[in-house]
Amino acid sequence: MAQVTIRQLTVADRGAAVDVINTAARWYRDFLPPDELHDPEMTAAQWDDEARRLTWYGGFLDGALVAVMGLEYARDAALLRHAYILPEHQHHGIGLRLGEHLESVARCEGAALGVRRIIVGTYARNYKARGALKKAGYRLSADSAAILREYYAIPEDRLRASVTYEKPT
C-alpha cells in the first residue's frame, strides 16, 4: 500500500482538488450516456458550495494531491461523498486509506451526532467503485432510491443511475 498523507483540505487546495475530481471523472465516459455527462464534473464554485455542508479531505503523495473525498453528516448517517483518485494512482490503496480515515472520523465525530451508519453512493455502472466498496466491507442498500432521496441532494438523472452502499459505524 502506498504511503499516503491524509489531511483536511482548505480553500488553498481547491484548485488541485477540482483538477483531481475532473481528471478522475473522465472515467465516467466509459459508462454514462453522453447526455448524462457533466463537463467539468465540478467547478471551483461547486466545490465551495459542497464545502458549506461537507468537509473535504485529500490524500497526498510526495506533497501532491492525488485523491479527494468528502464527509457529510445527514440525520443518522455519515455520507462519504465525491471519492476521486487520479487514474495513475488507482489500485494502490490510496482510496482505501482515505475512505478508512473518513470512516474513523465519522465514528468519532458521529457518535455525538447519533450516526449509526456510513453511506456511499455511486453510479450503478461504475464497476470499479462498486468492487472497491465491496472490498471495503460495504453492502448494497436494500432500497438505494429511497436512501438517495432521503440523504442526498443530487439531480434526478444521477439518482436514477445510482446505487448506495452501507456499513454500520
List the helices and strands and how they pair.
Elements: E1 5-8, H1 14-24, H2 44-51, E2 55-61, E3 64-74, E4 77-85, H3 94-113, E5 117-123, H4 127-135, E6 139-140, H5 144-151, H6 156-160, E7 162-168
Q: How would you describe the overall organization of this protein?
A:
The structure is a single chain. The chain has 169 residues and is an alpha+beta fold. Helices cover 36% and strands 28% of the residues. Strand 2 (55-61) and strand 3 form a beta hairpin. The radius of gyration is 15 Å and the shape is globular. The mean pLDDT is 94.
Major sheet summary line: 7 strands, mixed
Helix content: 25-40%
Put simply, the count of helices is 6
The fraction of residues assigned to DSSP E strands is 25-35%
Distance between the termini: 24 Å
Mean pLDDT: 94
**What structural category do the secondary elements indicate?**
alpha+beta
Q: In angstroms, what is the radius of gyration?
A: 15 Å
Strand order of the largest sheet: 1-2-3-4-5-7-6
> Topology as H/E string?
EHHEEEHEHEHHE
